[in-house]
Amino acid sequence: MSEATKPESERRQFKAIKGTRDILPPDSALWNWFEKTARGVMESYNFGEIRTPIFEETELFARAVGNETEVVSKEMYTFLDPPRDLDVGPFPRQTTLESMGQLSDLLPRDRVSLRPEATASVVRAYIEHGMHTRPGDRKLYYIGPMFRRERPQKGRYRQFYQIGAEVLGTSDAPAIDAELIEMLTVLLERCQIEKYTLLINSIGCSACRPTYVELLRAKLREPEIFSKLGADSQRRVETNPLRVMDSKLPEEQAIIEKLPKISEHLCADCKAHYEKLKKELALREVPFTESPRLVRGLDYYMRTTFEITSPILGAQNALCGGGRYDGLVEMLGGPKGIKGIGFALGEDRFIDAIVEAKKINATRAVDVFIAWMGERAYPTAVRLAHVLRGEKHAVELPPEEVKFRKALERADKMGARYVLIIGDDEIASKQLTVKRLANGVQERISEDAVVDYFRRG
Ligand code: AMP
Fold it and tell me: Could you report the per-residue pLDDT of 126-146, keeping only the tens digit for each?
């Protein structure tokens, strides 16, 4: 039996895939408001929008983000393109990175992933389009969905939305870092999110970090420390000890507090850069908290790292994270000496924070509900709906005639500001009736004066 001929109770209904969701009106109005506000703020700092593809070669993310990161090793949605059967593992076409690795004739470009983040793509595009050949820094921003196969929970999704900005160029002046962070605080202010903390740190450079990492590794290998670490952290002692600092496991917190801090092991250049950053932030009156544990989860960061958290968000409290990645352009095959810094903010979480703060109301009610009655009124109703929409009013025109009382009820439910009443009388006299729903006041206006009337609001 085909699905269509089955009784309704037996027909299979589709649901959004776990970790993904629909954003519906009226909630979508707040998303649009937020994106418009973010664009406005970033454009006021002279950032231009970049749109990159949703999927890229897996290798790009593996190289940029790091093979050892959770994001790349466990969370990417990866597939073969063109598809082919894999005779490895229990499932045909099993497309884990591991099983694909067993295909000896696999070309790197045959393996693609949905983007788990966008910095790698932005840097790829920067190199591909030779953006470094133009003088000055490139200031780019993006808005769009990212994909990570994480365990879904409130504030954590498998398809989530990020807004991010990147500055790429030959300068690594701390003023660039400070201005980027200032821009974020302006956005928070526009969203009237007052409860947040800006955490900053410096994680050093290729000159000073390796010595610190070895020191940290040696410390973590000490049996009385190592035995108290969880399995993930124990593995990271060898693969990337810096990331142990990132651990959120409650039982590891006391140990982490006592580990050597990178801020005490920075080279002279990194120290000077970090000191200057703090001065630049103070100059801009941006309050910050230093967090020696802030190392960030992705491999490409160096020197400045920062994060903004908000206590109004609950467990998933990170609103935004970012940092400097001076070696990334070169690592992805681009020219030497190009520096970079960027951030990505979680749009889903910003929206939650805006809702929690209860200060912004972005939903837009209908301005004019046109209650038309009778065949003769209909052409006028259609014409006026078109004209008023051209004036940027939100207009609801019922597609079928509705009785007067019902029309008023519907307009009221929609939260319409005005009802424009057009019936036989109005057509005959060319005098239309406008009812303001807030106070019930009714006026007669001439058909020719309608546009002016609503322009005055
Ligand atoms: P990251 O790219 O991991 O530095 O993340 C930057 C920001 O994106 C975080 O601070 C979060 O606000 C947001 N984010 C990251 N992963 C998720 C997710 N799975 N669901 C929702 N938001 C996320």
Answer: 999 999 999 899 999 999 999
Q: Are residues 294 and 169 in the same domain?
A: yes
- Nearest C-alpha neighbor of 110 from the set 150, 56, 33, 191: 56
Residue of 31, 72, 146 with the most ligand 1 atoms within 8 Å of its CB, for mutation: 146
The two tokens of residue 103 are 């295909």
Do 310 and 432 fall within a single domain? no
Where is the domain boundary, 311, 330, 357?
357
* Residues 337 and 372 occupy one common structural domain: no
Distance 425 CA to ligand 1 centre (A): 59
- The pLDDT score that the predictor gives to residue 263 is 87
Q: What is the CATH number of the domain that holds 92?
A: 3.30.930.10
Which band of pLDDT confidence, cut at 50, 70 and 90, is reported for residue 110? Answer: confident
Kindly report the pTM of this predicted structure: 0.90
32 and 107 co-located in one domain? yes
**What is the distance between the terminal CA atoms of the chain, rounded to a whole angstrom?**
58
| Residue 39, both tokens | 């664009």
- Give the residue, out of 166, 348, 350, with the most ligand 1 atoms within 8 A of its beta carbon, to mutate for a pocket test: 348
Split into its structural domains, the chain has a count of 2
What are 8's two structure tokens?
């309704």
As a whole number of angstroms, the distance between CA 347 and CA 86 comes to 37
Q: What is the CATH number of the domain that holds 424?
A: 3.40.50.800
Range of the domain at 451: 368-456
Half-sphere exposure of 224 (CA within 13 A, CB side): 3
Domain boundary among 315, 337, 357: 357
Closest ligand 1 atom to residue 152 Cα is 19
Of all protein residues, the one whose alpha carbon is nearest to atom 11 of ligand 1 is 346
Same domain, 183 and 308: yes
385-396 confidence digits (pLDDT tens): 999 999 999 999
